[in-house]
Amino acid sequence: MKSPRLDLRLLRLLLVTDGRGDVGRLERIVGEAVQAGVRCVQLREPQLSARGLLHACERLMPVLQAAGGMLLVNDRLDVAAAAHAHGAQVGHRSLPPEIARAVLGPTAVLGYSAHDQAELDLAVVADCDFALLSPVWATSSKPDAASLGVAQAANLTSKARLPVLWLGGVGVQQLEELATVVPAKRPIGVAVRSGIMGASDPGAATAGLLQALALVPAEARPMP
């Protein structure tokens, strides 16, 4: 079911930060990515303390808000609940998603990081707004993780009862492969980390990804 909390168009290209903990660098890269078209950022910075995350949110929230975008904090429900972000992203190492929803309340956006059908179902029961399904392609951030592959990811996405984004190894070549997937099995968007965070020109990298995404219409099937 489509959540009234969330404009799904914001999730077309989600940027996941890479955990280096440098707030100045984050502000620069996020600023360039947002200027190029990113409208949702997941702040994934485990090296930062709660105070450090609050500081990062204070710097990034105005950038996203000025563009009509959205900032999510990975795991740290306390930071998200303190209204320094629009919501949170949780996974199997976080508090259970149903507890996360109780902590955040009914109006905050909540995403769940899923890897299989059981976790996609769990996200629905916990009233999550969307799921990140990963890793779809091989990714340098988790070189030992077995990738789902396009066929399996498409099958899981078609059965999901909430909006799904694909994460893991996303680049222009992968988006060209995504364009060959049957529309009803496509995700609503993709999430990218190193493809933007590690780029010499984050703005140009973002623009290239969005240009490739423009050739891949998002799935429009109704949620069961």
What this model shows, in words?
With 224 residues, this protein is of the alpha/beta class. The protein has one domain (8-213): Aldolase class I (TIM Barrel, Alpha-Beta Barrel). The chain has helices spanning 23-36, 50-66, 77-84, 97-104, 117-125, 150-159, 172-178, 194-197, 202-213; strands spanning 13-16, 40-43, 70-74, 87-90, 109-114, 130-133, 164-167, 189-192. Helix 1 (23-36) runs parallel beside helix 2 and helix 1 (23-36) packs parallel to helix 9 (202-213). The radius of gyration is 16 Å and the shape is globular. The termini are close together. The mean pLDDT is 93.
Summed up, the domain count is 1
Global mean pLDDT: 93
In CATH, the homologous superfamily goes by the name Aldolase class I
The total of helices stands at 9
Distance linking N and C termini: 7 Å
- Compute the number of strand runs: 8
User: Percent of residues in beta strands?
Assistant: 15-25%
Order of strands in the sheet with the most strands? Answer: 1-2-3-4-5-6-7-8
CATH architectural type: Alpha-Beta Barrel
User: Helical amount among residues, as a percent range?
Assistant: 25-40%
- Our Rg estimate from Cα atoms comes to 16 Å
CATH class: Alpha Beta
Spell out the helices and strands N to C: EHEHEHEHEHEHEHEHH
Poorly predicted sequence stretches spanning 5 or more consecutive residues: none
Shape: globular
Q: Under CATH, the topology is which?
A: TIM Barrel
Oligomer: single chain
Structural class, from helix and strand content? alpha/beta
Please give the largest β-sheet. 8 strands, parallel, barrel
